[in-house]
Amino acid sequence: MLAAAAAELAAAGCAAPEAEALQLACHAAGRDRSALLLARRDPVPADSPLRTRLPGLIARRARREPLQHIIGTAALLDVELAVGPGVFIPRPETECLVDHYLRGNALAAPIVVDLCTGTGAIALAVAAAIPGARVSAVERSPEALAWARRNIDAAAAARPGLRIAERVRLVRGDAADPGLLPGLRGRVDAVLTNPPYVPEGSAVDAETRADPPEAVFAGPDGLDLIRPMAPVIAALLRPGGHLAMEHDEHQHPAVAGILATAGFTGITARRDLAGRERFTTAVRGGAAGG
Length: 290
Hints:
Elements: H1 2-11, H2 17-29, H3 33-38, H4 49-52, H5 54-62, H6 67-71, E1 73-76, E2 79-82, H7 92-104, E3 111-115, H8 121-129, E4 134-139, H9 142-158, H10 164-167, E5 168-172, E6 188-193, H11 206-209, H12 226-236, E7 237-246, H13 252-261, E8 264-271, E9 277-284
Parallel strand pairs: 3-4, 3-6, 4-5, 6-7
Antiparallel strand pairs: 1-2, 7-9, 8-9
């Protein structure tokens, strides 16, 4: 059954058909991967979810509905997030950005801002990894804000000892607004962001087309939001504060120029696990932004 499901997904052009078939089978059966694999030679009754439910899930994925929409969740590091239509699905490249920050952070109680938070993925990953961190998660889209609220509330209920509800603040705001977060101007230790950066008209896969367009595309060169964001971020960060910004693998030179103009130093391209330059880090130089 798994082999047939994987073959159907492969024929549809899914990138990881075997892994996705297994994940959908686990979701259908309500069993983890190990339990399902241990039972792989067992007879499958006619009323098993693997017969009654799995074929429909496979058919949906074969139509290139995102896997995360079908199972209802996505993960970023050790944080599980509810996802669905109306919010950007977190990708592995963002894990690299967050992991880089976590490895370099030496502060026990940093003030962090997650711009374009979407599901709340970055904010919650930081709050889960650094128990003293205080994070402001900023989002403009009402639909995405509802998903982020759901995820923050779920994380707070699942891990009460982390005091997520006290430490993660959800803010409706525009990342390009010069008046954003006035109470934090010049005080923020780190800004982490995965803004929209795909040039309009770019060919994207079916899964990306399922994301909200405003969370993916940003003008002819993909930099229409990053340009006005840069001075906003500079104003929020304290001198010496850190920025990590995700972007397309070809955009680092342009992003570096934008950040240099905004007063950043130490501008460095960072690579993902495939060796592509997928995010840039920088340090706020000089006096606090005004």
